[in-house]
Amino acid sequence: MNAGLATIAIFVALAIVYAWLPLRWRPTFLLIVSVLAIYALQPFSNLRFAAYSLQTLTILLTLATWWLTQRLVPDAPTLARQDRLTLLLLLGLILLVTVDRLLPVTMRLLPYRPPQVGWVLLVLAGTAVLSLIFAQILRRLPYRHVLTGAMLVLVAVFVLLKWAPAATAVAALWRSWTGEQVALAAPSDLAWLGFSYVAFRLIHTLRDRQTGLMPTCTLPEFVTYVLFFPAYTAGPIDRLERFVGDFRALDAVPTATRWGQGGWRIAVGLFKKFVIADSLALGLSLTAVSAQQATSTAGLWLLLYGYAFRLYFDFSGYSDIAIGLGILFGIKLPENFRAPYLKSNLTSFWQSWHITLSDWARFYIFTPLSRSLLRRKPRPSPQLILLTAHLSTMMVIGLWHGITANFVIWGLWHGVGLFVHKQWSDRTRRWYRFLADKPGQKRAWSLVGWFITFHYVVLGWVWFALPTVPLAWQTFAKLVGTAV
What we know:
Elements: H1 5-20, H2 26-41, H3 50-71, H4 81-98, H5 117-138, H6 143-162, H7 164-178, H8 195-210, H9 219-227, H10 240-247, H11 256-281, H12 288-293, H13 297-328, H14 346-350, H15 355-374, H16 382-401, H17 405-427, H18 429-435, H19 439-465, H20 469-479
């Protein structure tokens, strides 16, 4: 959740309003606030009308995914009244946001200027016509292939955003259409807030429909799940069936206990993010500049430790705030961090760091890939299957953060580490059982395991924090004292 203190305060105020609403109005209130919030949170873009257009496209992609997973299925029932009303509501909200352009500059709620209502209506009408045409075409195609194609489209959009040359090319094309200077095109022009998390939620539902695991849900349930504002920009990545369960059982009146739990999580998150993480960011954290300016090995290690803890407190702080806000609105988002830096092996670390992303990768990459390789004839060796699955899974997680060489290497770094730990644990199980009767030795070995795991993760952050491979190698050399 890329939000400041003022935004968080507004969300808490909305939770207070929400608490006084009649129960029947609460689902609609969450939907409306979530839609308006994604427009308000979207930062300014140098591309004309890009900020507004990208979040509108988020809504359209959400609608398309719901239609593919709920309406395109054979023998789908007639469109329910609440779904029709939700379509009209979403159209009204999309148009309502454009009214912000009519307000005086000092009163505008958005950090950018939306397009004129007439243009928006024209584009939406064209989109509706094209959607009806595509719907007829898609109904004639194998359903499984349609879902696969939809997932590939989301992946392609993701690549366009995360790969700098592609993003620059799209920005340049956009600028040429709007009469802006093409030479100024940059990847930052396409800063599509929240799309990384939206894409993973949509792919999750498409894949679950493909495997028969997706539950039936209404349009307001689906849209609120995808756009739920506390978790929109920084997770956690919730599962549809879990979210819908909470959505259908919103409490009539928030209890004092729930408000206490939500308020405490928000307070903890605020302290982590705005006190600890931001303090570390002021100078005690590894960056490209500080890595080059470091003059001592000890100082560089201190910067690296600072970056590791800054990253943890920043990300887990925002997760705490999101979870706390969710509790205030009756939605219990899944946990995302469980003391990851205290784990004694890399597998446990990844079961405790960004848990919802790790679970998503395991469910939709590691397990399907492993099963596919097991079915191959001739079957690869178990070690090769495991290595391939670990490397592929962690490389996808790396690329999810950005399509650069450093993120690829960071993913491979952890893939290799997980594979090595698996081989080690398989070969030392008898020894570990032996340690069960020797608590002193067991504690000592756990401490050794923690030390190795912690520093393996911390050294991996060098690839994550720095922008280029040469600078990362120079930093590694400084860390071991071979270059100062």
